Input
Amino acid sequence: MKPETLITAVSFACFGVLVGWILGSQQTGPVTAPAASTQAAGSTAPTSGGGDGTGDQPPPLDVQRAADLERTANAQPANVGVRVDLANLYFDAKRFDQAIPWYVAALKLNPADADVSTDLGVSYYYSNQIDQALTQLDHSLAIDPKHAKTLLNQGVIRAFGKQDLPGAMQSWERVVAVAPGTDEARQAQKFLDTLKSAHPGGAVGGVPGGAGSGGI
Output
């Protein structure tokens, strides 16, 4: 899995603003984040581009390498690695719409690769295909229910893509439970602590006890 697929470049200030806005809106019906909050959420997502709304310039695409990899992929229809390499190259350049078909092609050849499946899910997220992203992460978790990076990403996409804080909490509590002591668990705990500080002493969207309630 590419490090950039982790949605861990989250600005906790922006996260706290979004949490507060969602909590303040929960009693008025379905929540749709306002434009400003959506942009803030985009700035918290992975440092990798295209549709993420950060405004950062992506690294330039190595056009020659992309062409070479594509020729190799076309000449070697059973070569999984070259398809992953090509998808990763487009991912790094924040060209997620071009990364997606190559991740899909790699998964067709090796459907049990949870890392590639999660990379694909994050690419869907950056391409503003939120439901497809979550469906793909569900596939990753069907392969490996304890895949910490998938669970961490799932929580962030639930929070920022769907404004589903209870669902995000479940994902992050699961990370802490299945991968204690890891970077993913530490990141998840920070998210949970932010939620707890935004809504101390109560429940967040019907999740009793807030952060630290023991996971799923």
Residues 183-198 form the longest helix (16 residues). The chain has ten helices and no strands. The mean pLDDT is 77. The domain at 3-198 is CATH 1.25.40.10 (Serine Threonine Protein Phosphatase 5, Tetratricopeptide repeat).
